What we know:
By secondary structure, the protein is of the alpha+beta class. It has three helices and five strands.
Amino acid sequence: xxxxxxxxxxxxxxxxxxxxxxxxxxxxxxxxxxxxxxxxxxxxxxxxxxxxxxxxxxxxxxxxxxxxxxxxxxxxxxxxxxxxxxxxx
Length: 89
């Protein structure tokens, strides 16, 4: 169980091969995460179907997380590893 008391904030994102990203957080943590298995549902499937769209990921400074042009975003605590992912429907 994590002892973190505040939300992690992403400071930078770098697309890697396939559907992997290198994320740097404001606490100094750097994680490489492969999101391919998590890209399901109406907002994420376009990212899986179009690798060029997936690579347009950026950090939203206000939200402190990653976002895509189609409106998709992910919880920074989940990406940091502090919160469980939601079960598939």
